[in-house]
Amino acid sequence: MPRGNKGGFPTYWTTFGQGPRAALMIHCSLAEAGIWGGMAQFLSDALSMIAFDLPGHGRSGDWDSRGEMSAVCTGIAADFASASAPMDIIGHSFGGVVALKLAIERPDLVRSIVIIEPVFFAVALRAYPEACDEHRQEQCAFRAALEAGDLEAAARGFIGAWGGGRPWDSFRPEAQARMAQQMPLIAAAGPALYDDVGGMLEPGVLEAVDKPALLLEGSEAPTIIPAINKGLATRLPNAQRGVIGGAGHMSVATHPEQVSAEVLRFLQEV
């Protein structure tokens, strides 16, 4: 896996596939680039993929609070994409929000976007607040654990909500410790995800994104996710939605063949 400065940040990345189209893969919080390995088996004939570790994840540099988290990650993504633009951008969870931000800010680098379970909570909180009660309760518990300095409790709750159904106790102790130490990264993403500090929900911003977009969610996703995708689909002019049957939030790892089939179907159309 190579390492270099991307967007001014020390970043590790890996590559998959030898297909004719270039794609950039952006993983979720607490994961790393290798999470795309399962899908890469099904996408390799169609795509030449670059997957990088987000700041504070995998073997990229530790997060140093140099700026707003989503902006820094988008700068890294833009650096990769500028080498072989335009690219198909595929993002999961927080990575999906970064993919959308890249399409807004640098449409010249983007051929299409696939956004899998984006955690852009501000969309649902503003448009469909009635669908957000469960998430509000989870977030209150998460913030209380952080304020109490109990990173393990925060991580346990986070995995309970966003781990795709995998029990906390199924993780090895070293993995639990690593995820607990990464909880400040989750908090650092909050201004973008909850407060829309980047202004992506301002009037006319999403409506100007004319790139083909696929919004995917699992049938067993957290209840706020369909509301987010519904809100995005109503404003993105060239968007379509898809559902991965039986999948929770971590479909890219648990249902790679099904997610890849949806991606390939979409890419054949665009």
Query: Termini separation (Å)?
Result: 30 Å
| Molecular shape | globular
Order of helices and strands: EEEHEHEHEHHHHHEHEHH
- How would you state the average pLDDT, rounded? 96
Q: Whole-number radius of gyration?
A: 17 Å
Content of β-strand: 15-25%
Q: Helix count? A: 11
- What is the helical fraction, as a range of percent? 40-55%
User: Could you give the count of β-strands?
Assistant: 8
Strand order of the largest sheet: 1-2-4-3-5-6-7-8
Low-confidence stretches: none
Largest sheet: 8 strands, mixed
Provide the structure class: alpha/beta
Can you walk through the features of this model?
This protein has 270 residues and is α/β, with parallel strands linked by helices. The protein has helices at residues 37-43, 69-81, 94-105, 121-127, 133-147, 151-162, 173-181, 183-195, 224-235, 251-254, 256-269; strands spanning 3-6, 9-16, 21-26, 47-52, 87-92, 110-116, 213-218, 239-244. It has an 8-stranded mixed β-sheet with strand order 1-2-4-3-5-6-7-8, sandwiched between helices. Helix 4 crosses helix 9 (224-235). It is globular and about 50 Å long.
Set out the fold topology:
Elements: E1 3-6, E2 9-16, E3 21-26, H1 37-43, E4 47-52, H2 69-81, E5 87-92, H3 94-105, E6 110-116, H4 121-127, H5 133-147, H6 151-162, H7 173-181, H8 183-195, E7 213-218, H9 224-235, E8 239-244, H10 251-254, H11 256-269
Parallel strand pairs: 3-4, 3-5, 5-6, 6-7, 7-8
Antiparallel strand pairs: 1-2, 2-4
Helix pairs in contact: 1-11, 2-3, 4-8, 4-9, 5-6, 6-7
